[in-house]
Design brief:
With 343 residues, the protein is of the alpha/beta class. The chain has 2 domains: 143 residues, Glycogen Phosphorylase B (Rossmann fold); 182 residues, Glycogen Phosphorylase B (Rossmann fold). It is built from 12 helices and 12 strands. Strands 3-2-1-4-5-6 form a 6-stranded parallel beta sheet, with helices on both faces. The protein has a 6-stranded parallel beta sheet with strand order 9-8-7-10-11-12, sandwiched between helices. The radius of gyration is 21 Å and the shape is globular.
Length: 343
């Protein structure tokens, strides 16, 4: 097999879940040329990946107008067609990924079991042995369908010396020198019902401070900045606030320094789990079996509501989904996880 195309566009957490596919492909077909099509938000995660030979950036916004489509489609088609792909893997399973796969014209086209928007008419859905399991294993089932062995599940994330030094400098400036224990709070999430209340984070930070553990807020975007400000205002002892001050690779290095990472079902928390860091995930609309921190699903705390796992972006009942997860409950989970790591 000479040329393989992977299409996994967004979001950041989903692309992280798909990273082991690149490792599995290259372990099985080391001489194959692996191309990955991705959208801008997750592009930095794939830069420097030693198992990806070519990255193609797909900027969906540029295709929305007729003029934009006529301008952008021909060069994209030429680039996709320039390499005659033996097989394509549609790990997105939506119309936009199906259009890319169709344009590429691989001889064999496979995709995930739950493709939508007509994607299953373009690629053959793969329903593997992990079809009811974690999403990482579901993606790997697609790789297995093209003959890949999966001897180990690896999340290849390469951090440059420059990003590593930038993250270290930032921590030093904020009073978190090397050797100082800290817990990273991933404060935001795209879905409103994946966010733990700011006042809960503030109370947890105060308790950790009493235990001589620093709390460090991380995230990005205007909403996360607002949430971080609310946490800072509600806390007796304001935590270290790094929201909006790191890129993804710097955040990855920061997580390697953290004793533990906590947050909702969101990209940064999945990044921490992929890096093998102790991770506590607070979950409501999604379930731990499919989306919990990979390899440590037992560290997920699922809200005690009969409607949990609804997969709704916003609660149709108007509830603050994760508010029922108490600070006491999270503090105990963190304590248990940290004790297990030490022992």
């Amino acid at each position: 097999m000479k040329n393989i195309l992977v299409v996994k566009l967004s979001a950041i957490g989903d692309v992280i879940h798909a990273l082991p596919v690149s490792y599995a492909i290259k372990e099985t077909y080391p001489d194959a040329h692996l191309t990955w099509v991705v959208e801008p938000p997750a592009y930095p995660l794939l830069e420097g990946n030693p198992y990806i030979d070519e990255l193609i950036l797909f900027e969906k916004a540029k295709f929305r107008s007729i003029a934009g489509f006529l301008r952008e489609y021909p060069p994209l088609r030429r680039r996709l067609r320039a390499r005659r792909y033996d097989v394509s893997l549609d790990l997105q399973g939506l119309f936009k990924s199906a259009a890319i796969v169709y344009t590429a014209g691989a001889r064999e086209r496979v995709g995930t079991a739950n493709m939508r928007e007509g994607a299953d008419r373009v690629s053959r859905p793969v329903r593997g042995p992990h079809a009811q399991g974690h999403i990482v294993e579901r993606y790997l089932d697609v790789a297995r369908a093209i003959g890949c062995r999966v001897d180990a599940v690896r999340f290849p994330i390469t951090v440059s010396d420059r990003d590593r030094m930038a993250a270290e400098t930032l921590l030093q400036r904020e009073g978190v020198p090397e050797g100082r224990a800290f817990v990273a709070f991933a404060v935001g999430a795209n879905w409103p019902n994946k966010r733990w209340p700011a006042e809960h984070f503030a109370a947890l930070g105060d308790r950790l401070y009493e235990a001589h553990i620093v709390s460090v807020l991380v995230g990005g975007g205007h909403l996360d900045v607002t949430i971080a400000a609310d946490i800072m205002a509600a806390a007796r002892i304001p935590p270290v606030n790094l929201v909006g001050r790191t890129n993804l690779k710097q955040l990855a290095h920061l997580f390697t320094r953290a004793a533990l990472v906590i947050g909702g079902d969101t990209g940064p928390v999945h990044l921490a789990a992929g890096l093998g860091r102790p991770t506590v995930m607070l979950m409501g609309p999604t379930d731990a079996n499919r989306n919990g921190p990979y390899g440590q699903q037992e560290h997920a705390i699922e809200v005690d509501r009969s409607c949990r796992g609804c997969w709704k972006r916003a609660c149709p009942k108007g509830l603050d989904c994760l508010a029922l997860i108490t600070v006491d409950e999270v503090e105990k989970k963190i304590t248990d996880v940290l004790h297990a790591v030490v022992s």
